[in-house]
Amino acid sequence: MLNYKFDWAVVTSGKYLDWLLSGLKVTVQLSAVAMVASFVLGLAIAVLRLSPLRPLRAVAAAYVEFFRNTPLVVQIFFWYFGSYQLLPAALNDWLNNHNFEFGAAVIALTIYTSAFIAEDIRSGILAVPKEQMEAARSAGFSYLTAMRRVILPQAVRITVPPLVNQFLNLTKNSSLAMTIGVAELTYQARQVESYSFKGFEAFTAATVVYLALSLVITGTVAVYDRKVLNPALGR
Amino acid sequence: MIRFRDVNKWFGKIHVLRDVNLAVEPGEVVVVCGPSGSGKSTLIRTINKLEPIDAGQVVVDGQDLSDPKLEINKLRAEIGFVFQQFNLYPHLNVLANITLAPRLVRKVPPREADQQAEALLARVGLSEKRDVYPSQLSGGQQQRVAIARALAMKPKIMLFDEPTSALDPEMIGEVLAVMKDLATTGMTMMVVTHEMGFAREVSSRVVFIDHGSILEEARPEEFFRNPKHPRAQQFLKQVLSPMH
Amino acid sequence: MKKLTLMLLATAAIFSLRTGQAAAKDTLVDAKKKGVLVCGVKDSLPPFGYVDAGTREIVGYDIDFCRALADKLKVKVEMKPVTSASRIPQLQEGNIDLIAATMTHTAEREKQIDFSHTYFVTGQKFLAKAGTVKTLKDLEGKKVATAKGSTSEQNVSKAVPTATVLSFDDYPQAVLAMQQGKVVAVTTDESILMGQLNKLPSGQYEIPSLQISEEPYGLGMRKGDTAFVAFVNKTLLEMEKNGEARRIYDKWFTATSGTPRARNFTITAGK
User: What is the chain A residue with the closest CA to B98?
Assistant: First the structure.
């Protein structure tokens, strides 16, 4: 029955290891860029979502609902293939010569994730007592400055646990970039499989690496939370 | 300094301010008292437009609050506001709580802002607490920091909305002491409070409000010795009785 | 640890599953008795096997070979659509008698089934904008698209090591990337490329004659079905000799195809 021979050397040395490592590098780059960008964008959307101006609120709500409820792979295709129809030819040429696969994947991951992050931060903002806004406005702060200097720092702290979730999802979602040929970790694992017929080893290795990445993210945030955020709140 | 003319305000169907007319002159310390739900907090919150009004006119420091050209943030910078629940910024330490608005609104250079903040902390007796976070302070200490925070803007007017109501009894004194000290400097103050001792000793005028109307307005010695309105008499009996 | 070992064993078992041995069966006798020959064919891969929009029947190059065999047997023919993954198990289980479904003759498959003589030869080629790819040099340092999980990628990496290969989930995306100039060419089996080419505006795209691998198609039959295999091979050689094989080829690759393709093989007993 057991005629499958495990060969872990396939993924622990040689060119297949190099492939997996280069895939890891791309996954980390994709995730890191999209993480920072989606956080900033999500923050902005969350603030718009709570703006005193109704049109801004409506636009932000539409943004969240649209990008949260459209499959990520569709969004990736939209930015990669769909944008072609909308952009001038010269820009398309430039993009095609500058690793647009990676760029389109980053844009899609950023926008998709930002919609979720915006909702998390919005709940975080709503969890900050409204008296904080009153105190800041009473001191002469504009709405935006009060938001930025008083409300958001507190909201983000409250938002840390769901934010970690979004970052973990983002890292895993980045594997969808392979649908447009971005050679990230899952792509490379598949590649190793189709060359070596050692799919089990290749995907086990990829799984272990994703797990390790997740632990790094969770751990980093946990340390940051304990060393920086909690003392500030006196917890 | 502050002028209310025929001010009316509703919360839905509840008429919270009825035909309020009141003037506060520079350097005056006006205490506003009345039963809970009388509209006294709403009244003080209209002065820096935390609560908009529905009819009438509020003029502060010569500026009509209903003027569409009013720069509300500029005006608010001139008005210190002290809340019942302190509302310190929990993510900032004491010093940063005090310097935040001067630095960002008044554009005071950081070093100068720090020096001013330290002077104010000394004034409220909390110099040694400059680096701790609000959650590490007692209620009384937090309220004193809140007063220092408001003073850091060098305001023309200080508003206090029940500044001692949330405090344990043993901490009330330390906050009132700071407020008394402030009154002696000639600051224009409006204070919503049940602390009748403070009203008697420090205020220049007492305003009694109930059901949204100002029912009595008098010098403190007169108000306490000889309240005219029956509801003011009843109110005084309640707050001054040792059994209350 | 014990649990983990068990899990690993179970997974390995799935990886190593083999369908049960084919029952010794003489299709030649059975088909005559039943009066029908059942062929496993592709139903969405023109021009090999696809549903004709007018008649709603499956037609194509593979189908015509099935019909010829059934005619020779003097039995009716039935077409059963199969996928690349299901065709061999279906044959082994007796659901179909013959695979005529663009199946490449490989050593690995030969362990499980018997192949007829080669009745079509294709290989990995390129689909590109007309005139842009003339030699493999035109691909050096460029991006080339293919679909995942195929061996196409390995072949092109071997033939043009400096090319970057982008693997998409499916061919339509690879073709779109080529149309939008994101890659210079799409590479995979010629038969698949032809199907894609027919969907594109005519004249703007082409399949240059560059070929980087050879794939002979054979008809598949159950292992040990010796008499039937002999019958099929004999019939194929007859069809080559009397010109019917060429007629079928011309019907599908010259007359109805947008891009005429030269017949680059003859059916012989060699393979």
Answer: A139
**The token pair that represents C6 in the structure block:** 């068990």
Judging contacts by C-beta atoms under 8 Å, the chain A residues touching residue B83 are: 131, 134-135
Give yes or no for residue B119 having a pLDDT over 90. Answer: yes
The answer to whether the peptide bond before residue C47 is cis (omega within 30 degrees of 0) is yes
Structure tokens at A172: 């895993």
pLDDT for residue B27: 93
Beta-carbon separation of A179 and C12 below 8 A? no
Q: How close is the nearest chain A Cα to the Cα of C264, in Å? A: 29
Instruction: Identify the residue with better confidence: A109 or A159.
Output: A109
d(CA A74, CA A169): 17
Q: How many other C-beta atoms can be found within 10 angstroms of the C-beta atom of residue B70?
A: 14
Asked if C230 is an interface residue toward chain A (Cβ–Cβ < 8 A), one would say no
User: Between C12, C151, C169, which is nearest A4 by CB?
Assistant: C12
Checking if the pLDDT of A11 tops 90, the result is no
Shortest distance between the Cα of C75 and any Cα of chain A, in A, equals: 41
Complex ipTM value: 0.90
What is the average pLDDT across C2-18? 51
d(CA B132, CA B126): 11
CA A35 to chain B, closest CA, distance in angstroms equals: 24
CA atoms of A208 and A11, how far apart (whole Å): 12
Which of B65, B104, B105 is the best mutation test for A, with the most CBs of A within 10 A?
B104
Question: What is the C-alpha end-to-end distance of chain B, expressed in Å?
Answer: 35
Radius of gyration of chain B (CA): 18
Report how far residue B129's alpha carbon sits from residue B145's, in angstroms, rounded to the nearest whole number.
Answer: 9
Mind listing the pLDDT tens digit for each residue in C152-192? 788 888 889 999 888 887 888 899 999 999 999 999 888 78
Q: Which of residues 109-138 of A touch B (CB under 8 A)?
A: 129, 131-132, 134-138
In B14-167, alpha helices (H): 40-46, 72-77, 94-104, 110-123, 139-151
Residue B156: its H or E element: none
Beta carbons of B183 and B29 less than 8 angstroms apart: yes
